[in-house]
Amino acid sequence: MLKGKTALVTGSTSGIGLGIARALAAQGANIVVNGFGDAAAIAAIEKGLQALGTATMYHGADISRPSQIEDMVRAAESRFGRVDVLVNNAGIQHVAPIEDFPTERWDAVIAINLSSAFHTVRMALPKMKQANWGRIINIASVHGLVASVQKVAYVAAKHGIIGLTKVVALESATTGVTCNAICPGWVLTPMVQKQINARAARDNLDNDSARRALLGDKQPSLDFVTTEQIGAMAVFLCSPAADQIRGVAYNMDGGWYAQ
Ligand code: NAD
Questions:
Q1: Would you state the torsion angle of the CA atoms of residues 216, 221, 223, 224, taken in this order, to the nearest 10 degrees?
Q2: Using CA positions, which residue lies closest to atom 44 of ligand 1?
Q3: Structural domains of the chain, with CATH
């Protein structure tokens, strides 16, 4: 379905981004891999994607830096012509009550989880509009729809990216470019494992009990969303069936938001 198209997935060296990159590569898209990691691990990721029959390139832009984002988009365009599918996925978390929340962590979460998408979209959108086809998929969170304590920067950024999603969808509404957000609940990635470890240490639990406690607090299905499921949703949003899905924040959260 995506043969000849190019997908840039920020934060695709791990977790959800990697799952989406694999799902898009399986549909034939060339992949621009981004994110941190050691060179050998990144080379292995690229090799795995290439084994699905696609071309890849890696760009190590730190997406808290607009100039590095610009360099990444330009490098992708010079290698593949344009970015057809943009997945704004990279993100970080910091957990603390607002009175103790380090201002430097606030700035970093807002820059990486929100402002980066402003920069990637403003840079990639003109060529999508020129081609009259494009897909922008923002990985928000159920925390873009509801709040939790101790996550002020994350919740603010995720609510913000849903606003950005709606504006971009409206500004592209008469074109073949769509912009939507996916809002996962708990997905078992390194980002969430850190929170499980913190829970285990705080409540003196083993890993399995801490996982169950984390799910039990928020996610009625008591099961994690998988990176493969999110990848499949991204593929659907790239399909012709999704041509008129615009400005939507689609939750995949085991019932979290239904409560
Ligand atoms: P992860 O920690 O496994 O992966 C994060 C990726 O972002 C990595 O590739 C990392 O290198 C990259 N990254 C971080 N800072 C970066 C920077 N400054 N520049 C470039 N790349 C950077 O996390 P994940 O759980 O896969 O999260 C991916 C996205 O999904 C995030 O936006 C997160 O908020 C969102 N999300 C995750 C969950 C969950 O339960 N895991 C739930 C809802 C939303």
A1: -100
A2: 141
A3: 6-185+226-252 (3.40.50.720), 188-224 (no CATH)
